[in-house]
UniProtKB/TrEMBL annotation:
PANTHER family cross-referenced by the UniProt entry: GALACTOSE OXIDASE (PTHR45632:SF24), LD33804P (PTHR45632)
Chain spans, region Disordered: 1-23, 37-101, 130-152, 167-218
UniProt biased composition (Polar residues): 1-10, 133-152, 186-200
Gene3D superfamilies for this protein: Kelch-type beta propeller
Coiled coil segments of this chain: none
UniProt feature, compositional bias: Low complexity: 55-97, 167-176
Protein name per the record: Galactose oxidase
Length: 385
């Protein structure tokens, strides 16, 4: 479906904006910051394969808001007086690259468009869309130390295309869609998850799906998405999952972006990578400043990207996978908040879209998603190479 996706990319909206449908079976790649199912017997694990990128390659972003991939680029970026930066994206084969390996274990069930958070050294995966296209209430615990993914309980309400974050120490799931690939079903429900059980603790101001969540300075921000018909530009803030304030607006409303907290403590921002705008997929990197409540476009991805996953490992934010040019991508990109540039940081074992993502310790995990046109149970481990 589509939080990170449904039938093939996310479920098309019923309003004027429709979602692009990615062609299955093509791997081409990405990676950057945070968000992310299962119950049942474990399936046989996949054999480990490591893929790394060491070759150079650059792209250039134009100051007009349209990315122009050229294969070459200057090493510097220039910010315009309007506050919109146009950095150059340069591949860095050295520091900051990641190796991506299929874990020797899988999720209990294949799932796409789930949400995920790190929790006490583990990763919790919430809901998502199963291989039949229906929303699920399953919660899966991924234990990196044990090398396992097991059932951890269930949500009170089955959802896919939701966002998740830890609020006041409690894993919390925001909105989503209760019907998967079917029309309708967008919900305003906010669910907490503690000790294997879930309960509804509040409601969003309005139903929302296909959005992202990021937390900084004691608040969680919900960014982008749609209400089933209209792309949402409002940025919501909450400190308890029960009450919400309108904290700002996106410069360009999008659904299915990759969202992460970036920058140093005390000056952190919420960074929004790509997504599906009403006029099509975008390569824009937007940044919301909680201090000022303003959002600016600060840079460009090498190409337009939707349904990607973002996460932070060892202080560095990455964007991985997604849908680009109608194909599932395998690229991993590193984001540098000092100049808002991106550089190639590796390749996933295969192209994947709508995978849940979270980091714990010095590793990140991509969970499920869609690969080669099929809902996946694959767990991909990413670590510094």
């Amino acid at each position: 479906m589509n939080r990170r996706n449904g039938s093939s990319s996310r479920r098309p909206l019923r309003g004027p904006a429709t979602r692009a449908t990615p062609a299955a079976g093509v791997a081409s790649a990405l990676v950057a910051a945070a968000l992310l199912s299962g119950c049942g017997d474990g399936q046989p694990g996949a054999s480990a394969q490591t893929f790394m990128t060491n070759g150079p390659g650059t792209t250039t972003a134009t100051p007009t808001g349209t990315a122009t991939p050229t294969g070459t680029g200057s090493p510097t970026g220039t910010a315009s007086p309007t506050g919109t930066a146009s950095p150059t994206s340069t591949a860095s084969p050295g520091a900051g690259s990641l190796s991506a390996t299929k874990a020797p274990f899988t999720l209990p069930n294949a799932v796409s468009d789930a949400a995920a958070v790190s929790n006490n050294g583990k990763v919790l995966v919430f809901g998502g869309e199963d291989s039949t296209g229906k929303a699920t209430n399953q919660v899966t615990s991924v234990d990196p130390n044990a090398g396992s993914a097991t059932s951890a309980g269930s949500l009170s309400k089955a959802v896919t295309d939701a966002a998740a974050a830890t609020v006041g120490g409690t894993p919390t799931v925001f909105g989503g869609n209760t019907k998967g690939g079917d029309s309708g079903g967008v919900t305003d429900s906010v669910q907490s998850f503690t000790n294997g059980t879930s309960q509804e603790i509040g409601k969003l101001p309005s139903p929302r799906e296909n959005h992202g969540a990021a937390s900084t300075n004691g608040k969680t921000y919900l960014v982008g998405g749609d209400d089933g018909s209209n792309t949402q530009g409002d940025i919501l803030a909450t400190s308890d999952g029960k009450s919400f304030q309108n904290a700002g607006k996106l410069a360009k409303p999008v659904r299915n972006p990759a969202v992460a907290t970036t920058g140093a403590n005390g000056a952190q921002k919420v960074t929004i990578f790509g997504g599906q705008a009403d006029d099509g997929p975008t390569d824009a990197i937007q940044q919301f400043d909680p201090q000022t409540g303003k959002t600016t476009t600060v840079g460009k991805l090498p190409q337009a990207l939707t349904n990607a996953s973002a996460f932070t490992v060892n202080g560095t934010t990455y964007v991985a996978g997604g849908t680009s040019n109608g194909q599932q991508s395998s690229k991993i990109y590193k984001f540098d908040p000092t100049d808002n540039s991106v550089s190639e940081a590796g390749d996933l074992p295969e192209g994947v879209e709508n995978a849940a993502a979270a980091a714990t310790g010095n590793k990140a995990y991509l969970l499920g998603g869609k690969a080669n046109g099929e809902v996946s149970d694959t767990v991909t481990e990413l670590k510094s190479s």
